[in-house]
């Protein structure tokens, strides 16, 4: 119930639906009790005394009771459905919104499949419980209470006698649920591993075939399939035992009622009408036992689902705006970036960058070179405020970026990542992602600068060509050029190229870079690259190793001194170097 309380804000506005749904169900249950009472009246007051005139009235009342009950049941479903869907709708939106603002740190460990199941399966469980399960659970209690109250009022000794099997019925139902529940969980897991196998096989079909691992894949699938089949058989066997056992126990109650009730009627201590009413009323007690385990399990499951959804909603956002966060005026941003003794570690790991110190004046180009894991991307992530620094300051135009609103800071930065993500949309839509009011001319201009225009025009629908999920159907280089066009269209003060030209050939890289010369003008640009060719025109190059700056300077200066930069340079230009280790016509030999 604690979970329901915490979720209250999301259904508070429709609390009346919850109340109405419960009231309608309770009223329908109450009306259900009228039916056995009518039977009793029909037998004792109409049939036995021979009051034929009242038969029609009793029949008419029975029909009316059923009709009103049906209406109440409809209203219960109507209000419950409205409430459940309203709650699920609000929670879905709230979770999705929260996911947009959760920081990079959260996504470092989040699992896509798990998040998807929280937003679908778990929300569905909550919707069902709040919409119906909760009312049904209450109704179950009401049925047993109302039913036994009426039975007790007719003949309390007979009531207690016929209820003799009820504890056993409840026990069997609970025991069954405790077995079927893990069996279903196991079955869901088996099914999920089966679908994962199919999905991986289809996605990785090239790897499977190139390693000739088809037989292994078939065997792997067959094992998982067998596990699923065994689980299904186990669950089916449980089900096949449950109903006969419940039926058997219930019929004991009925038999006891027949024997004891019949005797009482013969002894005239009970009327025939009472006995018939008892036969009807006993199902008010036995019926709920059938669903007891299901409803309790439904409750525990939706409680667990509620906790999983609340975990997302209550997740703290570690990079967020301060109360008096500054909103940048795009016209006034110069792009002066300063790192002052910046140190940062991911979680409890060793620091990924240590004491990083540099200054890039507006419009300058800073290059980063370093081996895998040397901290290049981390520096850039810190500048975007994907994470906040542990020590030191990062300043934009003299202002610590922690003082600036995250949104307005990022609106001044455009990044082209090593891996391009394209949405399932048109090329045009992908270039103009997140921007309204951009003209087709602007989109084409950006694509031309990114050297993407020509290949786009060769596509069947040009800029209106729909690219599949993750840009399926385009080469790595083409995707990257679209990403570059997207960044250029944003017209940022700070441009970040995180290994942006790694997927294009040297020739295209040069073409793109000559385009960059123009678009970089007036923008502070950070280039992370593995190729010296991408960095040679930078105003300053920082060489990183294990998170520290180990060399810095211009290309011409760095190739003149021994160190990692010159080593990389020599490896990359081995075929073109003169005897002094310089490219022909380069440096001041
Ligand atoms: N999200 C993360 N969570 C934990 N550790 C991380 C994370 N990202 C990077 N690291 C660690 O931080 C260090 C620096 O990584 P970073 O990605 O900045 O290096 P890089 O120089 O950009 O490498 P590459 O050239 O391979 O992209 C590495 O030791 C890496 O394992």
TrEMBL record:
It comes from the Bacteria. PROSITE patterns: ABC_TM1F (PS50929), ABC_TRANSPORTER_1 (PS00211), ABC_TRANSPORTER_2 (PS50893). Pfam families: ABC_membrane, ABC_tran. The chain crosses the membrane at residues 15-35, 55-72, 125-148, 154-174, 248-266, 272-293. Residues 337-571 form the ABC transporter domain. It is found in: Cell membrane. GO terms for molecular function: ABC-type oligopeptide transporter activity; ATP binding; ATP hydrolysis activity. Keywords: ATP-binding, Cell membrane, Membrane, Nucleotide-binding, Transmembrane, Transmembrane helix, Transport. Residues 19-301 form the ABC transmembrane type-1 domain. InterPro entries: AAA+_ATPase (IPR003593), ABC1_TM_dom (IPR011527), ABC1_TM_sf (IPR036640), ABC_transporter-like_ATP-bd (IPR003439), ABC_transporter-like_CS (IPR017871), P-loop_NTPase (IPR027417), Type_1_exporter (IPR039421). It is a multi-pass membrane protein. One of its GO terms (cellular component) is plasma membrane. The keyword Repeat does not apply. The keyword Transport applies. This is ABC transporter ATP-binding protein/permease. It comes from Paenibacillus mellifer. The lineage of its organism: Bacteria, Bacillati, Bacillota, Bacilli, Bacillales.
């Amino acid at each position: 119930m604690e979970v329901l309380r915490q979720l209250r804000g999301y259904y508070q506005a429709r609390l009346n639906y919850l109340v109405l749904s419960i009231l309608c169900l309770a009223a329908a249950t109450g009306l259900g009790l009228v039916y056995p009472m009518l039977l009793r009246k029909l037998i004792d007051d109409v049939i036995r005394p021979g009051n034929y005139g009242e038969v029609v009235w009793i029949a008419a009342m029975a029909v009316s009771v059923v009709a009103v009950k049906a209406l109440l049941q409809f209203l219960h479903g109507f209000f419950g459905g409205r409430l459940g869907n309203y709650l699920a709708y609000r929670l879905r939106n709230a979770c999705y919104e929260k996911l947009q603002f959760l920081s990079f740190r959260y996504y470092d460990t989040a699992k896509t499949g798990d998040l998807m199941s929280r937003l679908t399966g778990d929300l569905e469980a909550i919707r069902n419980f709040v919409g119906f399960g909760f009312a049904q659970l209450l109704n179950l209690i009401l049925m047993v209470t109302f039913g036994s109250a009426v039975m007790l009022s007719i003949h309390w000794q007979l009531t207690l006698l016929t209820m003799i099997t009820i504890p056993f019925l409840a026990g069997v139902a609970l025991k069954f649920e405790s077995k079927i529940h893990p069996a279903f969980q196991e079955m869901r897991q088996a099914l999920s591993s089966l679908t994962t196998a199919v999905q991986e096989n289809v996605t990785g079909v090239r790897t499977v075939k190139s390693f000739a691992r088809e037989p292994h894949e078939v065997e792997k699938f067959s094992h998982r399939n067998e596990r699923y089949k065994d689980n299904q058989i186990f669950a089916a066997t449980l089900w096949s035992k449950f109903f006969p056992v419940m039926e058997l126990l219930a019929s004991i109650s009925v038999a006891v009622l027949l024997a004891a009730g019949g005797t009482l009627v013969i002894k005239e201590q009970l009327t025939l009408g009472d006995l018939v009413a008892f036969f009807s009323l006993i199902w008010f007690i036995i019926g709920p036992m059938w669903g007891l385990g299901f409803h309790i399990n439904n409750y525990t499951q939706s409680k667990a689902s509620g906790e999983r959804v609340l975990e997302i909603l209550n997740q703290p956002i570690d990079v967020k705006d301060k109360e008096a966060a500054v909103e940048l005026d795009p016209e006034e941003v110069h792009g002066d970036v300063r790192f002052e003794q910046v140190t940062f570690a991911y979680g409890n790991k060793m620091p990924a960058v240590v004491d990083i110190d540099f200054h890039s004046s507006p419009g300058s180009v800073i290059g980063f070179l370093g081996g895998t894991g040397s901290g290049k991307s981390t520096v850039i992530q810190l500048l975007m405020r994907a994470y906040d620094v542990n020590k030191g300051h990062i300043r934009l135009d003299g202002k610590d970026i922690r003082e600036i609103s995250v949104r307005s800071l990022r609106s001044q930065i455009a990044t082209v990542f090593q891996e391009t993500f394209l949405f399932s949309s048109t090329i045009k839509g992908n270039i103009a992602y997140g921007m309204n009011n951009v003209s087709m001319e602007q989109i084409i201009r950006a694509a031309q600068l990114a050297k993407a225009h020509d290949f786009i025009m060769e596509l069947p629908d040009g800029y209106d060509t729909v690219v599949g999920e993750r840009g399926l159907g385009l080469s790595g280089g083409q995707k990257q050029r679209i990403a570059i066009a997207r960044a250029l269209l944003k017209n940022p003060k700070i441009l970040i190229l995180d290994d942006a030209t790694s997927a294009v050939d040297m020739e295209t890289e040069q073409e793109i870079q000559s385009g960059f010369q123009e678009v970089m003008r007036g923008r502070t640009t950070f280039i992370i690259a593995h190729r010296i060719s991408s960095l040679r025109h930078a105003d300053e190059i920082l060489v990183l190793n294990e998170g520290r700056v180990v060399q810095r300077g211009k290309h011409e200066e760095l190739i003149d001194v021994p160190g990692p930069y010159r080593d990389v340079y020599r490896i990359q230009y081995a075929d073109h170097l003169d005897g002094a280790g310089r490219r022909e016509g380069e440096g001041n030999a």
